[in-house]
Write a structure and sequence with these properties.
With 218 residues, the chain is mainly α. It is built from nine helices and no strands. It is globular, with a radius of gyration of 18 Å.
Length: 218
Amino acid sequence: MPQVEGGIQAVRTLVLTFDVIGTFVFALSGAAAGIRARLDLFGILVLSFAAASSGGIMRDLLIGSVPPAAVKEWWYVAVSLAAGLTMFYWHPRFHRLRSMILVFDAAGLAVFAVAGAQKALAFGIGPMQAALLGMLTGVGGGIARDLLVNEVPTVLRSELYAIAALAGALIVVGGHVLQLNPTAAAIGGAVLCFAIRMIAIRRGWRLPTARVDSHSSS
């Protein structure tokens, strides 16, 4: 029993660690998007929190973890605001905000995808459903961020976004099924997701889109 309880506590600590990291980097991406859209300080902080917390809130509601951690725990707001203020005051040093958004977004996507899958597994959700919830956790923040600045969400138009999140979540789920070390599986999943996303951006890998004849009449 002590070993089982210790294992459960280790998983909870791992999920919390990845949640903190993911919250901060996704909040940075939200703040950078707000600055690029020329929002004021309040708007930037709102966008930081929305980008950092939307995916986790959706995940928690779906697995029955209510109230969602982002609402119940004060540190989610604190970390989001800290990241937003950091970007607001230091953004002149980041000359390429578009590039910064992409990097922070990829990092947040990777961390939240594995954290979402881990938390779903900890709540007794099946492996396939846990992988899908991990993907949802990863893409949710980016969707909220893009909609708030009146852009088509990245997940619907960009290079292998949801696929990268799903790949990272599947590594976590596979490690759970094979009873591998959860920390190693989480790190491996996050690295894989981040690598797929960044390589896809660099090389322009994307899923096919429907051909539309611009000369055809409606």
